[in-house]
Amino acid sequence: MDKNILYQERLFSAILNNVHDGIIAIDQNLLIMFINRAAERMSGWTNEEAEGNIVSRVFNLIESQNLFPLIPGGLPRDENPQLFRNVILKSHNGETFIVEGSITKIQSVDDNGLPGYVMVFRDTSEMKKLSAAIDFQASHDTLTGLFNRESFVPKLQEILEDLQRNPGSHVLLGFDIDQYQQICQGNEVVAGDELLREVAGIIHSHIQRGDISARFRDDIFAVILRDCTIEEAVRVAERLRETVRDFQFSSGGISCRISLSMGLLALTDAYTDPMDVLQGVDQACSEAKQQGGDRLVVYGSSFFRAAGG
């Protein structure tokens, strides 16, 4: 072999094996002709092991949206590259990656046939994890892990808009902790934070998977009880109130019983503005607080109804 050609082949191989993207060359029968080191790392196969195997055996590539195999459905039909993203790659070693990239037809030198395809892809798993973490931090309360007010209100708006089109039965529950300010006095911030985390845990134990819970600020919480009548919501709220009342809070030398002032409001198509709904629940909570706390008040268009105490 000509030394210049041998040098070029070695140089070309070195370049392919030192790029961070995975590269796969596939013939017209979807058999692997070559994979570089990045593709070896993600697939769990060496180039020698992969060569001559059907590509789907070595690279288990699944589209995340529909769980269909990427190949052969994702192969380009013309000279334009076929782009893909959010594709799941399960390696021979059991690892899972999220990848994105492109598949391009390989044209023969004499343009007399179609040797196959070349796939170039990169691992975006860490990027996806980082993006998900940033999204979570932006939409959730960092102390309790519940939604924050900024993300809760649009969800409430969506439910109100849906009630304009479709019949439904949902209830908004709001409450605060009667002893919170007392516990936080004297700069007992640590104890106050621990109390909020404890209450958030109790909320999780009393609501369903589809319900939406949030911490607005300080000790103010809100929960959308989905597919729930007002009577069912009263039972849920009362169980939550009683659980909290029976809970002995202890932190940093502080030990006390706690209680909640709670308000309920049935969501109907009469409401279009989430601020009106939140204001109504806030009024019910204030009424519960004025009556001595540790009670539930149900808000209606022209009445309040109290329970507990």
Short descriptors:
39% helix; alpha+beta; 2 domains; 309 residues; Beta-Lactamase
Per-chain topology:
Layout: H1 3-18, E1 22-27, E2 32-35, H2 37-43, H3 47-50, H4 55-58, E3 60-63, E4 82-90, E5 96-106, E6 116-123, H5 125-139, H6 149-165, E7 170-177, H7 180-184, H8 189-206, E8 212-217, E9 220-225, H9 230-245, E10 248-251, E11 254-257, E12 260-267, H10 274-290, E13 295-299, E14 304-308
Parallel strand pairs: 12-13
Antiparallel strand pairs: 1-2, 1-6, 3-4, 4-5, 5-6, 7-9, 7-12, 8-9, 10-11, 13-14
What is this structure, in a nutshell?
This protein is of the alpha+beta class and 309 residues long.
Structural write-up:
This protein is α+β, with helices and mostly antiparallel strands and 309 residues long. It folds into 2 domains: 128 residues, 2-Layer Sandwich (Beta-Lactamase), CATH 3.30.450.20; 169 residues, 2-Layer Sandwich (Alpha-Beta Plaits). It is 39% helix and 28% strand. It contains 10 helices and 14 strands. It has a 6-stranded antiparallel beta sheet. Strands 8-9-7-12-13-14 form a 6-stranded mixed beta sheet, sandwiched between helices. Strands 10-11 form a two-stranded antiparallel ribbon. Strand 8 and strand 9 form a beta hairpin. Helix 8 crosses helix 9. The termini are far apart. The mean pLDDT is 86.
Instruction: Determine Rg (CA atoms, Å).
Output: 30 Å
SSE ordering: HEEHHHEEEEHHEHHEEHEEEHEE
Number of helices: 10
Show unreliable segments.
none
Helical content (DSSP H or I, runs of 4+): 25-40%
Shape: elongated
CATH class of the largest domain: Alpha Beta
Reported for the largest beta sheet, the result is: 6 strands, antiparallel
Task: Give the terminus-to-terminus CA distance.
Answer: 94 Å
CATH superfamily of the largest domain: Reverse transcriptase/Diguanylate cyclase domain
Based on the structure given, which CATH architecture of the largest domain is correct? 2-Layer Sandwich
What name does the CATH topology of the largest domain carry? Alpha-Beta Plaits
Order of strands across the widest beta sheet? 2-1-6-5-4-3
Query: What fraction of the residues are assigned to beta strands by DSSP?
Result: 25-35%
Average pLDDT over all residues: 86
What count of domains describes the coordinates?
Answer: 2
